[in-house]
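Trying the structure run again after the queue cleared.
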Amino acid sequence: MTMDATLSGHLQELRRGTVVVASLTVLREPGYGYSLLETLSAAGFEVEANTLYPLLRRLEAQGLLTSSWNTDEARPRKFYRTTEQGDAIAAALRDEWVRLDEAIGDLDHPAGTDSRSEK
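Done. Tokens:
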């Protein structure tokens, strides 16, 4: 296995959970799947439709999203929105992300070598 393949696998693992946080955050405002794909892509999240749609269904089954069909336009679209529980989970995940980022920073710059350790 090449270093590129190894890195690619680890990056995929790292990004997997971030798509959940990003989706719950974006969907605080109602949105449909394709618009979410575009928003995530523009923000730098590489996710494919065959990954995102099952994720949306799973988050809905967990009670973190709610959905409704909009049939006002020529093409019906299923709109998703984060529930109150989804908002709480997203906030907790973002808080944990910040904590982990600080912890990695502390590992990268042990005590006494960087002002980050002076909390």
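Strands lie at 31-32, 65-70, 77-82. Worth checking whether this holds up in the mutant runs.
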